[in-house]
UniProtKB/TrEMBL annotation, chain A:
The keyword Ribonucleoprotein applies. Residues 66-223 form the Small ribosomal subunit protein uS7 domain. Belongs to the universal ribosomal protein uS7 family. This is Mitochondrial ribosomal protein S7. Keywords: Ribonucleoprotein, Ribosomal protein. InterPro entries: Ribosomal_uS7, Ribosomal_uS7_dom, Ribosomal_uS7_dom_sf. One of its GO terms (biological process) is translation. CDD domains: uS7_Mitochondria_Mammalian (cd14870). It comes from Cyanistes caeruleus (Eurasian blue tit).
From TrEMBL, chain B:
Keywords: Mitochondrion, Ribonucleoprotein, Ribosomal protein, Transit peptide. Belongs to the mitochondrion-specific ribosomal protein mS29 family. The keyword Mitochondrion applies. It comes from the Eukaryota. GO terms for biological process: apoptotic process. GO terms for molecular function: structural constituent of ribosome. Its main location: mitochondrion. It comes from Cyanistes caeruleus. This is Small ribosomal subunit protein mS29. The keyword Heme does not apply. It is found in: Mitochondrion. InterPro entries: P-loop_NTPase, Ribosomal_mS29, Ribosomal_mS29_met.
């Protein structure tokens, strides 16, 4: 790192190095680690141009350390990991992950019991895969439009605003977790509460879906202020 | 080959109907068309239609057999592991895998001479390898054969978390546990109804100042007394154990003493007396009487026990051998015994378990059906039955 020259200051007061404090501290030449097994098992003829270039770069460039949450398991799901992280309190990932697996198991048990008791013609309609239920429930809970506070002329208005995909996903997960934490009986366990909420959201019922509808109605009601948005 | 075809065909009969039916060996082979059999073959290999443990041989190894649900309620009012009970609830059937240690034990029981003193068997193994399930398999066999089964589901429950400790009225320095004793008596009554009418008491027993049970009354009355008067439940348990032990050599019934977590009887307890001094296991009446049952000074039956680190007190989690878990006192008390080791799943047993989960739709994740998913499950669980069950839960 070259020492920056600052005119007018004595040498003792010039900072020694400018070290990045926020965001990534890696040198830009570092590459991301590749976890997918299929890429390494492909013979070199099947690789596309970009993949071939990537493999060649890997020989010369250094690689970043893999974060602990990155998994090469075939069962890993980024959405589930995100949800687990949001459920985590004070860094207790072990507890959060066990709660998540208990939730998925509870959903599966409830649905399987329903499946085995249902008559033949209704069996196809019952979804037993907890991952499908989880993803569909989250999709059903995502709002389409959000509200943002914009201050104009001393007054704050709730202005309808489009949401990015990340923000939608975040809001859906946040609402689910807050609903389970706050509005349920004190003695029920989290897996039970969460599985109940996810099943309701999968069927487009329940308090979280209601909250989404309330938000949509508010956005519709405040349509007049939409032009306050400048982005 | 023919026997496995029979098993397949019986399975395919079952699979033809949508919901699960609980049946023993079927004879209606002729009604099944032969083109069903090759299609069902990869799925049905790990099941067997032989639901009588007496007929299980090496051929049935690594296969799952069905216990009808009514029998489960009658034979196992207590004693099945919690996760297995949940599995019975979810799948609507009780399927137990036939494994080598259980077959070994059954062979010993079949060949044992009941005129000799009772042989003690100790089932040991690492955590989660299937010791309790082996015990349950043997229990099912013995109850099908008409033995009197004395099953203590978990001896650790008697030495910890006891809310009420009463001073025994029979012996001054012993302590009674009314809640645990009455719970056990209730389950004992469910599983051994007919013996309670047949066995008669041989001595008069006084319960307190007014109540007594005369000589020659059926044992059921002692059990009723224990359930009605909870204070004397522990003494009722002691009387039941004593009577059964004294009458077993006559040969009118065979006795099986099945204790899960036998290392609790010779360890330490977490209970304290009113003056905060620790209670040692000998001071508990239930433990004292059970220890007397486990001595090999009676004949006409067998004693099958399991070691368990999971509920044990003050034992490191890596301990699994009889020497480590029983300690010197326990080992000397149980010596000589026949040790039966229960290992993790063999490759065939793993395939069988994996196939069963797939068939019952327990493994729902799309990747779990692939070879990669199977290899990952095998690696992560290390072929340990409990780990496989825990891993397959959320998938």
């Amino acid at each position: 790192m070259k020492l920056p020259t600052v005119r007018g200051l004595p040498a003792s007061l010039v900072p020694c190095r400018i070290i990045p404090v926020r965001w990534s501290r890696y040198n830009p030449s570092y590459l991301e680690p590749e976890v997918k097994k299929e890429l390494y098992q492909k013979p070199s003829e099947e690789l596309t141009e970009e993949e071939r270039e990537q493999m060649e770069l890997k020989v010369v460039r250094p690689i970043k350390a893999a974060p602990p949450a990155l998994s090469s398991s075939v069962f890993s799901d980024p959405m589930i990991s995100k949800f687990t992280n949001m459920m985590m309190k004070s860094g207790n990932k072990v507890l959060a992950r066990s709660l998540m697996s208990q939730t998925l198991e509870t959903i599966k048990r409830k649905q399987l019991e329903k499946y085995h008791k249902a008559p033949e013609n209704e069996k196809e309609t019952i979804e037993c895969n907890p991952y499908v239920i989880f993803h569909q429930a989250l999709k059903n809970c995502q709002p389409i439009i959000g509200l943002s506070n914009i201050t104009k002329g001393g007054k704050t208005y709730q202005v309808p605003v489009p949401l990015t995909d990340n923000r939608k996903r975040f809001l859906a997960m946040k609402w689910l977790i807050t609903e389970c934490r706050e509005n349920k009986h004190r003695r029920t366990m989290m897996p039970e509460k969460l599985s109940q909420e996810l099943l309701l959201a999968f069927n487009n019922e329940g308090p979280v879906i209601k909250k989404k509808h309330v938000l949509h109605k508010m956005a519709e009601a405040n349509r007049a202020y939409a032009h306050f948005r400048w982005w | 080959m023919l026997r496995s075809l029979k098993g397949l065909v019986c399975r395919s009969l079952r699979l033809d109907r949508g919901c699960a039916l609980h049946t023993a060996a079927r004879d209606g082979l002729s009604s099944v068309s032969s083109q069903d059999v090759p299609a069902e073959r990869p799925r049905a290999v790990f099941h067997t239609s032989e639901s009588d443990p007496a007929k299980h041989t090496e051929q049935h190894e690594a296969r799952l057999y069905n216990i009808p649900l009514e029998e489960v309620k009658a034979v196992f009012p207590h004693g099945l592991p919690h996760r297995f009970q949940q599995q019975i609830q979810t799948f609507n059937e009780a399927r137990v895998m036939v494994r080598k240690p259980a077959l070994e034990l059954l062979a010993y029981l079949r060949g044992s001479n009941f005129a000799h003193p009772a042989v003690r068997y100790v089932i040991y193994g690492e955590r989660g390898t299937g010791k309790t399930m082996t015990l349950c398999h043997v229990l099912h066999y013995c109850s099908r054969q008409g033995w009197l089964v004395l099953h203590i589901p978990d001896a650790h429950l008697w030495v910890k978390n006891c809310k009420e400790l009463l001073q025994s009225s029979y012996k001054k320095d012993r302590l009674d546990q009314p809640l645990q004793a009455s719970a056990w008596l209730k389950n004992f009554k469910t599983s051994n109804e007919r013996f309670l009418q047949e066995i008669k008491t041989q001595k008069k027993y006084m319960w307190g100042k007014q109540e007594s049970t005369e000589e020659g009354r059926p044992l059921g009355e002692v059990v009723e007394q224990g359930l009605a008067r909870v204070r004397s439940a522990t003494d009722a348990v002691g009387v039941v154990l004593r009577e059964i032990k004294q009458q077993s050599h006559r040969g009118s019934f065979r006795l099986l003493v099945a204790v899960d977590g036998v290392n609790a009887l010779w360890g330490r307890t977490t209970l304290r007396k009113e003056d905060k001094s620790p209670v040692s296991p000998e001071e508990l009446t239930l433990v004292h009487n059970l220890r007397k049952m486990l001595r090999n000074d009676w004949s006409g039956g067998a004693i099958v026990t399991t070691l368990s680190q999971t509920g044990s007190l003050f034992k490191p989690s890596s301990a699994y051998t009889p020497q480590e878990l029983l300690g010197k006192e326990g080992f000397d008390a149980l010596d000589p015994f026949v040790p039966i080791s229960v290992p993790n799943y063999s490759p065939r047993e793993f395939e069988s378990c994996y196939g069963y989960y797939l068939e019952r739709k327990w493994l729902q994740h799309e990747k779990a059906h692939t070879e990669d998913g199977k290899a990952e499950l095998r690696f992560l669980s290390g072929s340990n039955p409990r780990q496989l069950d825990r891993l397959a839960g959320p998938l």
